[in-house]
Amino acid sequence: MPDYVYGFSGLAVPDIDAARTFYRDTLGLDVTDAEMGQLSLTLPGGGWVLVYPKPDHSPATYTVLNLEVSDIDDAVTDLMARGVEMTRYEGFEQDELGIARGIEGDFGPDIAWFTDPAGNILSVLENPTST
């Protein structure tokens, strides 16, 4: 096996300025400008995500970033107050806040999905088994 030193993830956006504003001001993440017009998102608990410009960007049809929270109701309420609209998916029972309530051992954690300005799918989730 290779001697991996570090890992990080990346995602594309068509508008770096919109991404900077969303990830910094709306989500409250630590965002720094990186080389070649890119951004670096420092994630809670360690790790980071490279956000890079791609003018012909097409968002993925799956979740590209999950953010674990200690209280999903508070997190979703706060995000909605900041103008974030929760995404609703057919096949998932979601409550009035857009939260799919997990059933331990059956579905998984309580989770709510939303998109960034580029249409990338993100989530907040409360995972009681990880604490």
TrEMBL record:
Protein name: VOC family protein
Domain of life of the native organism: Bacteria
Pfam families found in the cross-reference section: Glyoxalase
InterPro entries, A to Z: Glyas_Bleomycin-R_OHBP_Dase, Glyas_Fos-R_dOase_dom, VOC_core
PROSITE patterns with a match to the protein in the record: VOC
Species, as recorded: Microcella pacifica
Domain VOC: 5-127
Stored SUPFAM superfamilies: Glyoxalase/Bleomycin resistance protein/Dihydroxybiphenyl dioxygenase (SSF54593)
